[in-house]
Amino acid sequence: MALPVERTATGREYKVKDMLQADFGRLEIELAEDQMAALMSCRFEFGTSQPLKGARIAGYLHMTPQTAVLIETFTALGAEVRWCSSNAFSTQDHAAAAIARDSAAVFAWKGETPQEYWWCIERALDWGPGGGPDLIVGDGGDAILLILEGIKAEETYEITGNLPDPASTKNPELQILLTIIRDGLETDPKRYHKMKERLVGVSEATATAVERLYGMQADGTLLFPVINVNDSVTETKFQNSCGCRPCGPDGLLMAADVEIAGKVAVVCGYGDVGKDCATALKKSGACVIVTEIDPIRALQALMEGILVLTLEDVVSEADIFAVTAGGSKGIITVDHMRKMKNNAIVCNIGPFNNAIDMSGLETFPGVKRVTFNLRTDRWVFPDTESGVIVLAEGRLVNLARATGHPSLTTASCSFANHAMAQLELWMERDTGKYEKKVYALPKHLDEKVAAYHLGKLGAKLTKLSKEHTD
């Protein structure tokens, strides 16, 4: 598909919902800046030296006011930035408008169709005939997937002359992706190869995407260096332990006007996000049950007073089902949903949209969809006249229905890790330090992110003497 791209008075491209919201977005960004000590300290330390001058950064991450602070940290350090959201429903339109008007190219709005979503990714990667970005800020892997599939298609086209066939797959999003690649191949048959040759590296913050990249490293198909910020200490220990990252109860209350107290809630997966969600639901008065495949995590849940059962044990009894096992396909199937009690609520608190079998639900013969409000739907099965309520069309509920990014506890740590990783990759680009492998964020940079926060929180760090150090 081709959508019209708009331009600011200075010629910067953008596509957002409503530029009239830019002033409101700017107010929200200024509030977020006050809480995001690490990024503001990064600007103070590096702004004068402009270490990212000349760097092209493509960002694929939820377009919120907190993300705006990250974008404007990059531009303050000299980078040119193009951005899209990593979720069709997660953009906060006022923040997108402010960034598009003031500082960077943005292609994002809340409620994108699948075709629009992939179009936005393509635009964020597009610097014209001169190739793509030098660096990518990743949150899920779709931008990388587009480049890798594009390279594969270009190699096939060069050898055989065959174009990608969207009908070769039943996956509707992959069909869209292959259509985008096909439509551009004859115009520029080396477009994605040029992107690969220019790309210095990627910072990635989603666990499942990181695992896929480790797999590519193992089989020799990884084409660029990656810094894994998902497993940084300041990411795993602080944003997860605060209980804010999932925002499950918030999303539920906002989306479906749900009383959680007294309800039976099933949390599918007891990793870091699952623990937070289970704890938040318990504190809201729910009786919580966990489903788990890992015996260690199952034992942790039991030792914290949470019952561990299979989904089949509880599917017809529970009131709320929250999937937190990020990246796992088909955790809740259409057959599960048919067995649920009337008006059971189903939502996804993991990052990907295939954990709930939305395709099976949407194509179930005779199923009826009743929309309560934006991104809250009741699906009624014809044989029982019983229905389930699905939030955010099976996508990440906190960013679709709630605000999603607490400035201090989540965004300041996570986004500062991205900033440190991008600086590291760019400043070491000619030294050979980073090969085509996945690396952890260096410890001294992880500690730097933590240190950036101390003054804001009123802390004073004790320094070791030489004797203590020895």
Please outline the helices and strands.
Elements: E1 6-7, E2 13-15, H1 22-35, H2 37-46, E3 56-60, H3 65-76, E4 80-84, H4 93-102, E5 105-107, H5 114-124, E6 135-138, H6 142-160, H7 172-185, H8 191-198, E7 201-204, H9 207-219, E8 226-228, H10 233-236, H11 248-256, E9 264-268, H12 272-283, E10 287-291, H13 295-303, E11 307-308, H14 311-314, E12 320-323, H15 334-339, E13 344-348, H16 358-362, E14 368-373, E15 376-380, E16 387-391, H17 397-401, H18 407-427, E17 438-440, H19 443-454, H20 466-469
Parallel strand pairs: 2-5, 3-4, 3-6, 4-5, 6-7, 7-8, 8-17, 9-10, 9-12, 10-11, 12-13, 13-16
Antiparallel strand pairs: 1-2, 14-15, 15-16
Written description of the protein model:
This protein is of the alpha/beta class and 470 residues long. It has 2 domains: 6-237 and 407-456, Rossmann fold (3-Layer(aba) Sandwich); 243-402, NAD(P)-binding Rossmann-like Domain (Rossmann fold). The chain contains 20 helices and 17 strands. The protein has helices at 22-35, 37-46, 65-76, 93-102, 114-124, 142-160, 172-185, 191-198, 207-219, 233-236, 248-256, 272-283, 295-303, 311-314, 334-339, 358-362, 397-401, 407-427, 443-454, 466-469; strands spanning 6-7, 13-15, 56-60, 80-84, 105-107, 135-138, 201-204, 226-228, 264-268, 287-291, 307-308, 320-323, 344-348, 368-373, 376-380, 387-391, 438-440. The protein has a 9-stranded mixed β-sheet with strand order 1-2-5-4-3-6-7-8-17, with helices on both faces. The protein has an 8-stranded mixed β-sheet with strand order 11-10-9-12-13-16-15-14, with helices on one face. Helix 13 (295-303) links the parallel strand 10 (287-291) and strand 11 (307-308). The longest helix has 21 residues, at 407-427. The protein is globular, with a radius of gyration of 23 Å. It starts with 5 loop residues before the first strand and ends with a helix. The model is unreliable at 240-248 (pLDDT under 50). This is adenosylhomocysteinase. Keywords: Hydrolase, NAD, One-carbon metabolism.
